[in-house]
Design goal:
Number of domains: 4
CATH topology of the largest domain: Uridine Diphospho-n-acetylenolpyruvylglucosamine Reductase, domain 3
Oligomer: single chain
Radius of gyration: 24 Å
Strand content: 15-25%
Distance between the termini: 37 Å
Length: 493
Amino acid sequence: MPEPLTSVLSRRAEIVAEMRAIVPGEGVVDAVNEMRVFESDALTAYRQLPLVVVLPETVEQVSAVLRFCNDNGVRVVPRGSGTSLSGGSLPLADAVLLVMSRFNRVLEIDYANRAVVAQPGVTNLGITNAIENEGFYYAPDPSSQIACSIGGNVAENSGGVHCLKYGLTANNVLGIEMVLVNGDIVRLGGKHLDSEGYDLLGLMIGSEGLLGVVTEVTVRILKKPETARAVLIGFPTSEQGGQCVADVIAAGIIPGGMEMMDRPAIEAAEDFVRVGYPLDVEALLIIELDGPPAEVNHLIAEVERIAGQNGSTTCRVSMSDAERLSFWAGRKAAFPAVGRISPDYLCMDGTIPRKELPRVLAGMRELSVKHGLRVANVFHAGDGNLHPLILYDANIPGELSAAEEFGADILRLCVRVGGVLTGEHGVGVEKRDLMPEMFSEADLDQQMRIKCAFDPNHLLNPGKVFPQLRRCAELGRMHVHRGQLPFPDIPRF
């Protein structure tokens, strides 16, 4: 991480006083014990107390905080609900932690345009709760939807179990209001169909707090499908389950959701929520079909046929909405359930081509033996977004390092088979040093140039995403290879 700036640390009292002037009342937290609750996000292996915690309530306050920090060379780390699994909101010792949780109101519900305008601190599930009485819902549904904020979803381009058919956050956000590092307030997109010029909205979604601070989000809402039914399918091996996933998609069937768990995750989830998962299988597939009843019934029959061809040993179709939700209850609770069988775990996030599922699952078993650690697999099978949960005990010397190297090997495997380092959790600090596995130096330089255009002094969330700390001016540096300059005949002054 970046070394703390002594010039900033020495001015802490002055900075705290300025923050209190901008955000009066209880909006500034500077006592050490009170800041402990903000020292990490959901990647709890890494912890750091911030310089000061600021909880603004208005856009004007956010603008004033950023303007002061920009003018005075003070770093800023934006934070939503703190559910990031990649260390994306890990504080810095010399940075203001800008917490957006007080921006927690739904500002407008527009059924005619099928849109909701919300502040970034509104929870993902809070949007659906606000509109479900009229038969609408917000499609992206991360497992942490009860707690994660819509602003954090924008920062990480979050997914969820129903994103296979209905898209990630990027496919469901229509517009945002954001504050730039110099305090300027800008709007991108809106309820209209499309925007002119460059797709800056697309650039902001998934930017992990490196380019600006979101203060308002306009999302697309959908009418609930006429019918939704889920199929619970068990397989003797994970490879057979993975092949069934590929065959379902190859048959032209796009389920509303398609999730998979292996035996350790199945047993943990069933012990936690008691929903009747089969315990004599190595892999469990949950496939949800939605739409008109006739279409759903036809697709369920097709899925059952494909599952049978892949050797399924159990197949159960939900007969009521309550039963369908119970199928999902175990999957949604898988992460906390695994927390009951291991003192600690790392939740990884890599994405692969669907056809590579059997190969990667087999590879993870080999890596488990190599590193001497257990792994439980829970993942969005339909879009190849893997979430291996690496089990370890931080109290045993060396196990955290082994878990981190195990996770790195999994992500290297994902890239090797044509996949990517992250599907929805973001890069943060967790995958930062693995970026060269996927991107060349030229690729990273181009990404850095975008960062420099928005934040030339690298004050917003520094130390995240980019594996090498450097200034914007260094991008144009001249490379001297073995004492030879490029194009030596060109006159230089």
